[in-house]
Amino acid sequence: MTVSIIIAVKDYRENLRECVSKCLALSFKDYEIIILPDISFSKEGIFSYPNIKIIPTGPVTPPYKRDLGGKQANGEILAFLDDDAYPVKDWLAEAVNIFESDENIACVCGPAVTPPQDSLSQKASGLVYSSRLVSGNHRFRYVPEGRKEVFDFPSCNLLIRKEVFDDIGGFDKPFWPGEDTFLCLKVLETGKKMIYDPKVLVYHHRRTLFEKHLIQIKNYAYHRGYFAKKYPKTSFRPEYFLPSLFSAGVLGGGVLGVFFPAFKMLYLTVIGFYLGSVGINTALLAFKEKHGIINKIRLFFLVSAGIIMTHLTYGVYFIRGLLADKMPEEAVCK
Q: Is the pTM of this model over 0.85?
């Protein structure tokens, strides 16, 4: 079984060099690497390996780049990887074993774990994502859990049979983020399976808290809200609505507390319980980290604030997505 690793990028960055160098060290050797930047760059150093293709695409969205990569790929398996992620040594070997075990498996995926060398603010972002208060039953995307069948998964670590990819028309939408949700929905409609396995692991550099992290959350929420309306089969789920209910409760409850003193005590009790839950959850995450006590305390405050701001940001932009007629990128033709 052969594999094409497809990496959609805007331009050359140092993370890309790290990603490619880790790919070149994989234990599984029957693969090619297809890099899709806006404009070409020099094939020097590690980029000069004969199994690496650099295909410039112009300034198009990542799903369009991945579709172009799929058309150029020679592998039986397409392995989508972000340029700010890098795989463990047996990433492909483990994934190929899963594909070979069952022809009805169309996709294989695995966790994207925060690298140990990330900065403290990046690690704080990673801990926010790995909190059950934020990711709930999707926590396995960020922390290795047991093997399971899934219905949706990010394209930073997603492998699919090329035959299936071609049959369903690839991503075929400009959505970004959210292109992976649309692709996974089409896979599910074929009746084939998507398997998550913790051994199919990559490390994924995080955005820093707070600005870059919250911009990413805003984009995730905006698209998920829109998908909940347009593609309800995988996106109209209770867990995606909870942050919006929380945000509405914070605002509405505060207003009601001003006009109805009897309601104020209930409101403060609920807020106190929420803040206590955040504090306990954050302490369990932050104080497990391999840092000195000062950095653990810093992580505690960063992650606590990050969880609260993530809930509020997601809640507001999910509602905006629900109300949107279309996503901005849909107005741009391929």
A: yes
